Hints:
Layout: H1 6-9, H2 13-19, E1 24-28, E2 34-45, E3 74-79, E4 83-90, E5 97-108, H3 110-116, H4 127-134, E6 150-153, H5 160-165, E7 168-171, E8 188-191
The structure holds a DNA duplex.
Amino acid sequence: MARLKPTFYRRDTERVARELLGMRLVRVLPGGEKLVGLITETEAYLGVRDRACHTFGGRRTPRTETMYLPGGHAYVYFIYGMHECFNVVTEKRGVPEAVLVRAVEPVEGVEEMRQRRGGRADLASGPGKLCQAMGITRALNGHPLAHAPLWIEEPRAQNLDLLRGRKFVSGPRVGVDYAGEAAAWELRFMLKAPVNRFSPSPR
DNA sequence: ATTTAGATCCTCT
DNA sequence: GAGGATCTAAATG
């Protein structure tokens, strides 16, 4: 299946956030096992003009440095003392914008993901959960998403119609009440129906 | 079903 | 020293 090329990411951030819905997030563990999740929820973070974004106003610190890389790199940060969040850097070098991947629907390596989630049923329905389930940590911060051990690819032909349909809903982003005007911006995108109609999701 | 509080630590001021 | 792009279990209605 075709891995997304850098040009996919080096475009308008909001558009990338929408078009990532339905794509396959692939993680190959150090042991070689392959974990795959279909992206079902994203949020766009619009850089220097977006109060909710880590790089608002051009803030540039050791943490946000990777957001200044060209689109197509992973931006993984640590939050609330215990969770990692996985983002995809967008736009060209020096334009620090990104898309937060908030949820995936597990489709391969599901048992491994369940174990990583401590046996719980809810595997990847939140940004911290999906990182735990797929073994995504800050060690992958700055990783180019074009190759192993972490990349994003187009789904199988069977799901292309769903991609074309792009049935999604949008709304305000989660947890950004502090961001003034930007808190109301509708930059959160979620697939309406299960993406993977050929492998039913938990009811 | 919805709300609340606690866990826990990195990052920036 | 404060607070956060979260999650969970426990309490409450």
